[in-house]
Design the sequence.
């Protein structure tokens, strides 16, 4: 009974006085995980309404749950359109701006924007995505997999389940459905493309639905990227022809408003800029229309105003307009401190819905119209009781003279005369970019760590996006080693200012960031504790096991058979005898991008040289956390590991760490009272 009284009292305090008198505090890990965030946005073709999703971690069913919301510009109102236990994705509008089409639980759903029940379209194909409507809404197109795989079904019945690598189907193709005026299916979907000669990656449909421009790979796997082609086909699947088969990476075809041209992205490789090319649907030679813009871009939409795209500029991100005739690029006149996330353009091009972060705010929804931006959401209010850290952009010189930027995060009561533990967080990619924004859904609870008395450095090492092609190309045959020395120079820069405790420097990262962190833990002893999350310990092991085999060849120029020296030079395993730094290794059981062999290899090598380490394998996880509970586990284990080494907390027992204590039942409490 005492337990019940305590709970009632707690609830009373929370309701009666908690909101009015709650004091600001450092956010706990669970509080950060509970914050809701805006995701994708789609403005209606007439520019009067905006669809957007709001996501949250739903722990009971262990899903990242996204619900659909509608903003009415004329009324200034927000309405939640979907509820329930299934997430919404792939949101789009009908051309008349009256209906919404979206994906939920693998099904295509249709809903009136004024509300009511959503209804599912009975589509037999699987793995559906890329929903597109013709201008008169009579045709719905999508990319998917065939309805039936009878041969595989018979094979499994006779010989069990197995996969023939690189030869076992999985091809994706374009399908089209005829719709009635009330948006119901009129017959079965027909295949526009088919067969095993190629797999569709991106596509666009002409405004009248008569043609499809698409990019394809020879096989539906990442190792086939360099086989990319731009093709076009009539709606009935006839007259298939190749428009561009030059060896390069290609994607995101977009028809011009009058269907007379097609824009698409072209890149010579991962470390090169994506450049927008334009070509006629009749064929011929494409022309590069954005070659003078020194960053990677993709065409997001093409209106009468031009080609719209988003691009990073150092740690910032803006949206732009490209004139495909003159190749002139102009930045939208949005506030310079807006770090743009996603965006969507009305049919006229005059109205843009976009998300942006400003200072310590979460990403909010903005409307850009007539040269002005208006914020229309306030999700940041969820954090009004949190003490959030200070973020600033700093820079330093690398060993070879290159200027490196980073984001330094410090406590609100930062005192440069004091000594602080230092977290050095390294992004992946390697063409990622760290920005001075608050992250509530990522791997690292930065505001908790800083609020508890640490400083955090996130580095945009050589190879990061936003700094131009030449800067990204500094990673050529230097992947891992160059970034590691950039980061060491950044650590030394902070140490020289006198506020870093050199006995408490933690280096951590995921994917490519995990590889660089492992380099720092073996090549150097600058870090006193480290973390390798889904990282590469040996580039040869990675090359022979990954699903994106061409990655290392793109950066190193050759395979490990032809040039083993460069693979050794940039691998943490090469320097394992130097290792002194304790390492926490985290990896997903089903990681195909960086196969788990890399984790086991580093773990055993650290054991062999007597360096403290722990390895945690997350069951069912691919290259990163996909469910709230796994994200909670990854964060908790990171917090325990670095809490011990940087905050002097007890060493964790990972087998039991983070499990909440059982609460006494009411019956047990009553017995105690009696």
Sequence:
């Amino acid at each position: 009974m005492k337990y019940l009284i305590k709970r009632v009292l707690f609830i009373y305090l929370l309701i009666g006085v908690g909101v009015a008198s709650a004091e600001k505090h450092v956010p706990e890990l669970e509080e950060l995980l509970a914050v809701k965030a805006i995701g994708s946005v789609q403005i209606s073709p007439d520019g009067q309404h905006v669809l957007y999703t709001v996501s949250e971690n739903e722990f009971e069913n262990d899903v990242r749950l996204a619900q659909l919301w509608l903003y009415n510009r004329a009324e200034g109102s927000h309405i939640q359109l979907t509820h329930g236990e299934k997430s919404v994705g792939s949101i789009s509008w009908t051309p008349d701006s009256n209906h919404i089409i979206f994906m939920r639980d693998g099904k295509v759903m249709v809903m009136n924007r004024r509300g009511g029940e959503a209804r599912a379209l009975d589509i037999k194909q699987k793995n559906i995505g890329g929903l597109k409507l013709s201008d008169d809404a009579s045709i719905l197109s999508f990319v998917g997999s065939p309805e039936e795989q009878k041969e595989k079904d018979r094979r499994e019945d006779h010989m069990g389940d197995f996969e023939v690598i690189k030869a076992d189907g999985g091809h994706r193709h374009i399908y089209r459905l005829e719709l009635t005026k009330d948006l119901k299916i009129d017959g079965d979907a027909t295949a526009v493309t088919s067969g095993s000669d190629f797999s569709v990656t991106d596509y666009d449909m002409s405004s009248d639905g008569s043609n499809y421009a698409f990019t394809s790979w020879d096989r539906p796997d990442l190792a086939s990227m360099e086989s990319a082609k731009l093709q076009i086909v009539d709606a009935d699947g006839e007259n298939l022809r190749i428009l561009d088969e030059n060896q390069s990476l290609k994607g995101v075809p977009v028809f011009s408003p009058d269907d007379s041209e097609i824009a698409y992205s072209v890149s010579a490789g991962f470390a090169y800029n994506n450049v927008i090319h334009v070509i006629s649907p009749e064929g011929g030679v494409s022309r590069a229309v954005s070659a003078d813009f020194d960053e990677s871009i993709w065409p997001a939409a093409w209106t009468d105003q031009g080609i719209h795209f988003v691009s990073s500029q150092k740690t910032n991100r803006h949206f732009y307009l490209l004139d495909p005739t003159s190749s002139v690029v102009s930045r939208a006149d949005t506030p310079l401190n807006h770090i743009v996330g996603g965006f969507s353009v009305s049919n006229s091009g005059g109205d843009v819905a976009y998300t942006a972060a400003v200072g310590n705010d979460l990403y909010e929804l903005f409307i850009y119209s007539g040269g002005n931006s208006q914020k229309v959401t306030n999700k940041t209010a969820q954090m009004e009781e949190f003490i959030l850290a200070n973020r600033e952009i700093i820079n330093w010189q690398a060993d070879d003279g290159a200027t490196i930027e980073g984001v330094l995060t410090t406590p609100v009561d930062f005192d440069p005369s004091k000594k602080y533990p230092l977290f050095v967080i390294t992004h992946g990619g390697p063409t990622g970019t760290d920005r001075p924004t608050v992250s509530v859904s990522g791997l690292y609870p930065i505001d908790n760590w800083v609020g508890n008395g640490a400083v955090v450095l996130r580095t945009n090492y050589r190879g990061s996006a936003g700094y131009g092609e030449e800067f990204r190309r500094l990673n050529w045959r230097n992947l891992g080693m160059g970034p590691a020395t950039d980061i060491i120079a950044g650590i030394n820069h902070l140490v020289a200012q006198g506020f870093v405790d050199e006995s408490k420097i933690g280096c951590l990262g995921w994917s490519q960031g995990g590889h660089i962190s492992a380099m720092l833990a073996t090549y150097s002893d600058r870090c006193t504790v480290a973390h390798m999350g889904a990282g590469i310990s040996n580039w040869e092991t990675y090359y022979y096991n990954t699903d994106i085999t061409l990655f290392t060849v793109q950066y190193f120029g050759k395979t490990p058979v032809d040039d083993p020296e460069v693979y050794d030079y940039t691998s943490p395993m090469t320097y394992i005898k130097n290792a002194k730094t304790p390492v926490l290794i985290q990896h997903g059981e089903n990681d195909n991008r960086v196969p788990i062999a890399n984790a086991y290899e580093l773990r055993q090598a650290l054991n062999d040289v007597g360096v403290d380490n722990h390895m945690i394998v997350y069951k069912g996880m691919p290259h990163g956390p996909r469910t709230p509970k796994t994200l909670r586990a990854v964060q908790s284990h990171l917090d325990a590991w670095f809490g011990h080494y940087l905050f002097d907390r007890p060493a964790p027992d990972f087998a039991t760490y983070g499990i909440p204590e059982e609460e006494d039942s009411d019956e047990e409490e009553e017995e105690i009272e009696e």
